[in-house]
Design a protein that fits this description.
The chain is mostly beta strands. It has a single domain, classed as TolB, C-terminal domain (Neuraminidase, 6 Propeller), CATH 2.120.10.30. It is built from two helices and 23 strands. A hairpin with a 4-residue loop joins β22 and β23. The radius of gyration is 21 Å and the shape is globular.
Length: about 425
């Protein structure tokens, strides 16, 4: 009996070790990146908000309402979520075209046009090859502000180089027959390249001045993680560039020695969410934390958002990240954070009138949380939270507002949703 018990505990010990090692080594792969198991120091969950699961840490927020906001929003206007198609192949980015249709990127390297009825075009040709391994592929996209006349598109993709992979930005013209991209050109590469297929960032927007704002990741590995803090590297940054890929005028580090002029903000982990506040015009982002510590940040010029020096998350295997601190002078606090994580991907502020209580609210796609988070923000603070479409059990990847005032979202499972009346 003694031998049997010893054997049983040995097997259990091996299994537990395997789980921890598995969590550690799987953490770069997004579908497995956010593991909800809880270390022994966990405190009881606050059941006052939408989150009912226990947090991964006993870290204390820097201010009231920074996490697990107690005000649970409930949409009272009747709405429905309709699957327009389930035939997309790993969609990653979606934008509204002027005529009410949608241009969508697929991770493997294709763009397709979807009608409001869900009908899909054939893959658009002429797009440079992408490295679709891991978290790479054809990522976010945006239309030129003058798209109606110049038909120019800008997109982000993972580009394989001789010394590794990197986040790249390209541009090209959608042909008149909508079958190809003409004159595709790579305009920017976020160096240094690294032999990793993780944490590319990948969202892209135009600002009001006509410059591109692009998010990058710090490529996940311990050796590249510190580069999020380096002004000499483009990893773990939000950058601001011209349509030709040069540093945009007015950037905070222009002319500064040992700093890249394209950097707008730094200290980011992996930013897959960018959106402009329709009221203030300010830039917001959401980024992946490690195990816990997903963040919503109000982005300001030249600011340092802390990764990996401060974080509300821990390593996937359980240890603290670095010194295990959450606050430090000179480093920005997240406006809001999630623990457990939601795995935030694309996001958009709703500006329509179809669902009145959604006006100017922020909608964030959740991957591991398989839902869409609605946040109400006032004076740069989150004052309410709601989770939508949880019953769909989909990994929501990106979201945009349609010309009809409905929201349209794509999922890793290949679906295109219309969310509205």
């Amino acid at each position: 009996m003694k031998n049997l018990l010893q054997k049983k505990w040995t097997i259990l010990g091996i299994a537990a070790t395997a789980v921890l090692l598995g969590a550690y080594y799987m953490h770069p792969a997004e579908p497995f990146a956010h593991i909800a198991t809880t270390p022994s120091e966990t405190v009881a969950a606050d059941t006052g908000g939408v989150e009912t699961k226990a947090p991964n840490t006993n870290y204390k927020p820097a201010f009231a309402g920074q996490t697990r906001i107690g005000n649970v929003l409930v949409t009272k206007t009747p709405y429905k979520a309709t699957v327009l198609t389930g035939d997309l192949a790993g969609p990653w980015g979606i934008v509204s075209l002027p005529d009410g249709r949608f241009l969508i990127t697929e991770k493997k390297g294709d763009m397709r046009i979807a009608g409001a009825d869900g009908k899909l075009s054939a893959p658009i040709t002429g797009i440079p090859e992408v490295n679709a391994a891991g978290q790479g592929g054809l990522l976010g996209l945006t239309l030129d502000p003058a798209f109606s006349t110049n038909r120019m598109i800008y997109w982000v993709f993972s580009n394989k180089k001789p010394n590794g992979n990197l986040t790249a930005v390209a541009k090209g013209k959608l042909s008149a027959d909508e079958k190809s991209i003409e004159g595709a050109t790579v305009i920017y590469e976020a160096t240094p390249a690294h032999n990793s297929s993780l944490h590319y960032g990948g969202r892209i927007l135009f600002d009001k001045q006509g410059y591109l704002v692009v998010s990058t990741g710090e490529r996940s590995d311990l050796e590249t993680r510190p580069l999020a803090q380096s002004l000499q590297a483009a990893l773990g940054k939000i950058i601001r560039i011209t349509k030709d890929g040069k540093a945009a005028p007015g950037n905070p580090f222009a002319g500064q020695k040992n700093a890249r002029a394209e950097i707008w903000s730094y200290g980011h982990r992996n930013v897959q969410s960018l959106a402009w506040d329709p009221v203030t015009g300010d830039l917001w982002e959401a980024e992946f934390g490690p195990r816990g510590g997903d963040e919503l940040n109000h982005i300001r010029k030249g600011k340092n958002y802390g990764w990996p020096t401060i974080t509300y998350g821990i390593e996937y295997a359980g240890p603290k990240v670095g010194d295990g601190i959450q606050q430090k002078a000179g480093l920005e606090q997240p406006v809001y954070y999630w623990d457990p994580v939601i795995s935030p991907s694309g996001m958009v502020f709703y500006t329509g009138n179809v669902i009145p209580e959604w006006k100017n609210n922020l909608f964030i796609c959740g991957l591991s949380s398989t839902q869409i988070t609605r946040l109400q923000i006032r004076n740069n603070k989150v004052v309410g939270e709601e989770r939508l479409l949880e019953d769909e059990k989909q990994r929501f990847r990106d979201i945009t507002e349609g010309k009809d005032g409905a929201l349209y979202a794509v999922t890793d499972g290949g679906r295109l949703y219309r969310i509205g009346k």
